[in-house]
Amino acid sequence: MKRILLVEDDTDLSEGLTLNLEAEGYEVVPILDGAEVMDEFDRGEFDLIVLDVMLPNVDGFSLCRKIRGTGSTVPILFLTARDSRDDKIEGLVIGGDDYLTKPFDLGELLARVGGMFRRQAWLAERTEVGDVYDFQGRRIDFSRYVAVGPHGEQQLSRRECMVMKYLVEREGQVVSRDHLLDAVWGYHVYPSNRTIDNFILKLRKIFEDDPGHPRFLKTVRGAGYRFSATPDGEG
Known about the structure:
- By secondary structure, the chain is an alpha/beta fold.
- The protein folds into two domains: 3-124, Response regulator (Rossmann fold, 3-Layer(aba) Sandwich), CATH 3.40.50; 132-233, Arc Repressor Mutant, subunit A (Orthogonal Bundle).
- The protein is built from eight helices and twelve strands.
- It has helices at residues 11-23, 37-43, 60-69, 85-93, 106-124, 158-169, 177-184, 194-207, and strands at 3-7, 27-31, 48-52, 76-80, 98-101, 132-135, 138-141, 146-149, 152-155, 174-175, 217-220, 224-227.
- The strands form three sheets. A five-stranded parallel β-sheet has the order 2-1-3-4-5, sandwiched between helices. The chain has a four-stranded antiparallel β-sheet with strand order 6-7-8-9, with no helix packed on it.
- α6 (158-169) packs across α8.
- It is elongated.
């Protein structure tokens, strides 16, 4: 049974979401106050956190940073009435996995939750790439979400790891931003390409000697991105 930490300060909404998530077969631990989240997080293991951004005492973005600061890669789905593009991008860049704007349809939330668990299973799947992928003195551990590049070892977020796995599995192929969005998020999350671009920039800082002149994560103008494991793949 998947265990979900639900952090939502609207009592009626929290109760409604709890009942519907439980009806889907999930175990739900509801919390109304942001100040209580880290204590509950430390007490038990969760498979997903559904996290409201606007909370009393501690906001959802700050809590996300604290959770990621522990080294946890538990998926985080933000719920918020703030629907600006910059807020959405910030939520993803700091370590969130998805973003649902209020008011939302219950069916969409349940679909998002199910999709997150399916993509989590895909990331854990053993493929020809393997759990650990080495290239040119770099390494990605897809099981631990750890990357080793010229600047040392760094923790990857779940989404960063998924973007890299999708590109590595298609080494040498041009992958469009839309295909990455579909594969990693499960739908076209935002109309702006900045979502993927920000992730690629972060990954270049981890794996490239000079992020401004990438050798491995190349931009193909007007088409998307291509991962090449060797300098011969440049061009």
